[in-house]
C-alpha cells in the first residue's frame, strides 16, 4: 500500500488570502497606522486606505477574486512561496507574464539551493533595501529574517552583523549609487579576507541579491507601494503615531508638504495631454522612416551619447534638498551621505562602458551560470520578458510598435550608468523622452526614495496605469542589468 | 618564445615552417583571419585593425588599417574576414552596424573600399562566399542577414530570421547556394541564397544562444555548432531532419569552433568567458580534449587554422592583447595526464576494475590491496594483464569476486534495523545493542557496547558478576582480534604468497610466521613484498566479526609496540578463544590447523594492549571511580578505529548513543564524514527509514539539513503522464483531475492510496471501508486488490 500527498497547500492558501483581504476591507477607512482598539485590549492593525499603491487608485488595481485563471495561479504560487500576497505582487499583476518570471527568480534567490544560508539572504536584502531607505522592503525582510532564525541583534545595525557581511557593506554602497566605480580591488577585498572571506559563488549570490533589491526598491518607490497591513513586524517599526501619518510619508521625503506648492496635475488641459501621445507617436513614426536618410557622423553619434550621459546627471527635480529624517532603517547603512546626488552635483565623469565588449547575454550570463547555476537562466528570462514585453498599445491607441520607445527607455537608463551601445543613436532618446519623463526615470533609478506622486502623475498623463507600471518594470530590469554588468565585469577582471 | 620546436610541413610545394610564437598587440583582439597564402594574418578589435606577416621567427606588423585622426566606430570591429579567393579583399563587421570592405590594392593609405550601413544593430559576423568573388554575407543583432554584391552599393537580398539576433553566418563549403545562420534563441537556420523569403530548414540546436558554427571542410553534410550551454554539437544535415551525431561538453560557453584541416573528427574551440584555453577535440572522444593550448591569459576571441590543408598550425587572438601561433607539437595533451580507469559492479557484487597497467603495478608494489582495506567485503582477486586499449599501450583488468558465502551484507542490514539509537537510557541502549551484535555473532562489537556501558554508566548499578564476566569476555575477544589482524597483515604483506587458508598449507604458515616476525622487527613492511605476480587470495569470510578482525590494521599494533612486554593477564584468558561459542566457523574448523597455532604463537607476543588497558580500566573503575571523561580519548580512538576499518556503522551508532559525552572529542568534519558515509550505505541498502532516523539524530548541522532539502514531492498526471506543476490533483495539460477516488468519485486532495496491481485507489478511509466488504477493486476492473 502506498500513500501520496496531493499538494493542497496552494488551495488553502488562496482561501487564506481572501479571508485576509476581506478583513482588510472591513477595517477600511480607519485612521493612522496601528490604531489601538482599547475595548478588547487588542491592538488591531488598520489599513491606510490606499490600496496596494499610493499612486494608483485602488479601483484601477485588480481586486483579488476577479483575477483570471493565470493570475489566480500566480497568486496561489506567490502565497505558497512567501506566505503572503504582498502589494508588490498586487501591482505587478498588471503584467502576469513578467510577474511569473519575477516570482520564480525571487523564490529561487531566497529559498532554493544556493551558497548562502537563508538568513544571510534576507539580511542582504535588508542591507540593499536600506540603502534606498525603503522601509517597505526592510520590514518585509526583517520578518523573514527573524522567521528563518536570524539573530535579532544583527538588526541593530550592520556593525552587529558578522564581519563577513560588514565587508559587503562597501560593495552594497558603491553598487547602489555608483556601480561604475567597482573595481577588481573591491572584489579582491571580499574574497581575500581570511576567515571572513567570501567564496566566488557566495559573492555572485550576494551580488544578484543586492542588485535585485536595489532595483526592487526602485519599483517600490516608483509605484508608490503601500506598506503591508498584515506584515505584523511592520508595526514594531512604525512610530506609535496618532495622526494620519504613514511611515512611507516620512520615508519618502515629505510629499505632504510638496503637494502644497505643486501645480496640480489637473491644470494641464486634457487636450494638451492628448496631443502628448499623438506627438510621441508621430515622432516614433518619423524616426522609423527617416532613419536612413539623415546619417549622423561618427563624432556626432559619440557626442550625442556624451551629451545624454552628462545631461542625465543634471536631470533632477528641484526638491531633492530634503534632509533624510532619522529612522530605524538608517541603522543599516553607515554612510548616508554617500549617495547619487553627491557626484551629480560635482559633475563627476562617468567612464563609458561598451556593451559590445561585455554584455549580459554573452559574458554576464556565462559567469553567473558558472558560479551560481540556474540563476543565470532565470535572470536571463526575466530580462528578456521585461525587454520584450508589449501589448502593442499606447494609451488609447492599438497596434503600435513600441519597440523603439522601449529601447529608448532601456538605453537611457544604461546611459545614465555610462553603458553605451555602439549601434544606438542617442539622439532618439531626446526625441522620445520628454523632460518630466526623464526626471521620473532618473529619480526612480538613482534616488528612488525621492520619487513622489507628483512625478508619477506628471509624466505620460494620458497613459494607463498599467503602462506606467510597465515602464517601471523596464526601469528596474535595466537598472539591475546595469549594476550586474559592472559587478560581474569586476569579478571577471579579478578572475583573469 | 622559449619553445624552439620547429615544424615543417610540405603542402604540395608550399611549405609552412614556424614555431610557437606570439606578439603583443596594442589592444584586445575581437577576431582574426588569415590570408589564403597563410603568410599574413589580420587582427581586428575595438581599437585595433592590423595586418601581420607570419615569419619564421616572429610576427611582423605589415599594415595598420586604422588611419585617420578621428576614431570612428566604423573601425570598431566585431568580426573580420579575409577573402579566400582574392588576397587584397577584406571585410569587417563594425559594432555600430556597418559592414566595411577593404581593398589592400588601393594606392592610398586609406584602404577602405565600401561602406554598407544597412543594419540597424551591431553586425556580429561577416562571411565571404568560398568561391564567388563578390558575394559577402552579414548577420546582425537586428535579426537580419544581408547578402551584398561588392560591385553594387546596396545589398542584393535580405533574409529575415524572424527572431532576435543572428550570431553567426557561414556559407556551406560545398553547396554553392546554401548558408547556415545561428541565432540567439538557440536555433540554426539553413537558407538558400536565391530564396530570401523563407529559410529552407530550421532546428533548435542549443539551449540559449548559438554563438558559432562551422561547416566541415570535407564532409558536406556536417555542421558543428557551439553555444552558451557549453556544448559543441556536430549535426549531420544530409538527412531530412538534422541529426546530432556528436556532442562535446566543454566547461564554458563556446565562442568559436573551427574544424581542423585534414583531420576528419577534430575541431578546435575557444570559450566566451572564464576559460582561456584553446581545445582541440576529437569529437568521438567528447570527454577529454585531445590537445590544449594554454598560452593566453585572457579569453581567446579568435582562432583560425593557418592553412586550409595544414593541421599543425593554429593562430589565435585574445583579449589579453596577444596574437599567438600555436604549433601542435607544443600542445599539452591532457590525455597523457589522465588515468583512464573503469569500474563496474557485477550482478552478484563482483567488482571489475580496469586501469593503466603502470598504475596498477605501481600500486600493487606498494600495497597489495589498494583501497579495499576500507571495504567491508573480502575479495578474491585475479590480476590478469589483458586487453589493450586503443591508446593505452597496456592496461590491467582486475576482478574482485565476492566470496559466495560472504557476499551478504546481511549483518549490516540486520544491525542497522535492530540497533536502538535513542529513546532509552544509555545503559539500556548499550545493552540492547550489545545483544543485537551478539546475536549476529559480532562479538567484538558486542563487547564494545558492553564496555561503553561500563564506562559511561555508573558502576555501582552494575552487578559485579556481570562486570567480571564482561571483562573476561572483553579480553577473550581481543586477542582473537589480534590474531586475525596478524593474519591480515601477513597476507597483506606477502603479495607473492599464495595463501589459501581453507587448505591450510604449511608453506603459508611459514610465510605467515615469517612475515609477522618481520612485521615486528620492521616498522615498514614493504621489505617483504616482492613481485607483483598475479596471485589468488582467498581470505576469510565476512561474517560480522571477521570484518573487524580482518580489518584490524597493523598501524595500531605498531603504535602499541612498546607494550608488547605485557603483564601476564592476557595469557590465561587467551584460551577462551576456542571456547568462544560464537567464534567464526572457519576458525573453529581449523582450530588445529597450523595457521591458527602459528597465529596463537604470535599472539602470545602480541597480546595486546587493549586487553591490558581494559582490565586496568575496570580495576581503576572500581577503585577510584574515574570520571567518564577519563576514557573519552580512548573511546575516541576506538571510534576512529572502527571508522577506519570501514565499520562506520559502529562509529556512528556509538556517536549517536553517547551523544554529548563524546561529541566534542571528535571534530565536526570527521563526524560529518562518518554520518554521510553511513547514510550513504543505508540508502544503498534502501533502509530509508533508518537513514532518516540517523539524519534526525545527528547533531551536525550539515547532516540535519539533509532532511530539509528537496522536500517537494513531484506528481505525474495519471492521464498524460506529464508532471503536474501547480496543484497535485488537477493537470494543467489535459484539464482533468488526476486522482479521483474509485469509491466516491471525488478528487482526492489528501492521502491517496492505490493498489499496485491495478493502480486504482482513492481516499484512504473509503478504500479501507470498501475492502471490509469486498475483495475486488472498487473501480470494477475485476482485479483482486490487495491493500496490506
From TrEMBL, chain A:
Principal subcellular localization: cytoplasm
Localization annotation: Cytoplasm
Regions annotated as coiled coil: none
GO MF, one annotated term: L-leucine binding
Keywords: Cytoplasm, Oxidoreductase
Catalysed reaction, written as an equation: a hydroperoxide + L-cysteinyl-[protein] = S-hydroxy-L-cysteinyl-[protein] + an alcohol
GO terms, biological process: cellular oxidant detoxification; cellular response to glucose starvation; cellular response to L-leucine; cellular response to leucine starvation; negative regulation of cell growth; negative regulation of TORC1 signaling; positive regulation of macroautophagy; reactive oxygen species metabolic process
This protein's GO CC annotations: cytoplasm; fibrillar center; GATOR2 complex; nucleoplasm
Family to which the UniProt record says this protein belongs: Belongs to the sestrin family.
PANTHER family: P53 REGULATED PA26 NUCLEAR PROTEIN SESTRIN, SESTRIN-1
Protein known as: Sestrin 1
TrEMBL record, chain B:
Molecular function as annotated in GO: ubiquitin protein ligase activity; zinc ion binding
The keyword Zinc-finger belongs to this UniProt entry's keyword annotation: yes
GO annotation, biological process: autophagy; cellular response to amino acid starvation; cytoplasmic translation; negative regulation of TORC1 signaling; negative regulation of translational initiation; positive regulation of macroautophagy; positive regulation of TORC1 signaling; positive regulation of translational initiation
Ranges for the WD repeats: 116-158, 203-245
Localization (cell): Lysosome membrane
Enzyme superclass (EC): transferase
EC number: 2.3.2.27
Catalytic activities: S-ubiquitinyl-[E2 ubiquitin-conjugating enzyme]-L-cysteine + [acceptor protein]-L-lysine = [E2 ubiquitin-conjugating enzyme]-L-cysteine + N(6)-ubiquitinyl-[acceptor protein]-L-lysine
Pathway: Protein modification; protein ubiquitination
GO cellular component, one term: GATOR2 complex
Matches recorded under InterPro entries: WD40/YVTN_repeat-like_dom_sf, WD40_repeat_CS, WD40_repeat_dom_sf, WD40_rpt, WDR24
Function in brief: Catalytic component of the GATOR2 complex, a multiprotein complex that acts as an activator of the amino acid-sensing branch of the mTORC1 signaling pathway. The GATOR2 complex indirectly activates mTORC1 through the inhibition of the GATOR1 subcomplex. GATOR2 probably acts as an E3 ubiquitin-protein ligase toward GATOR1. In the presence of abundant amino acids, the GATOR2 complex mediates ubiquitination of the NPRL2 core component of the GATOR1 complex, leading to GATOR1 inactivation. In the absence of amino acids, GATOR2 is inhibited, activating the GATOR1 complex.
Family (UniProt): Belongs to the WD repeat WDR24 family.
Protein name in UniProt: GATOR2 complex protein WDR24
The organism's taxonomic lineage, starting at the top: Eukaryota, Metazoa, Chordata, Craniata, Vertebrata
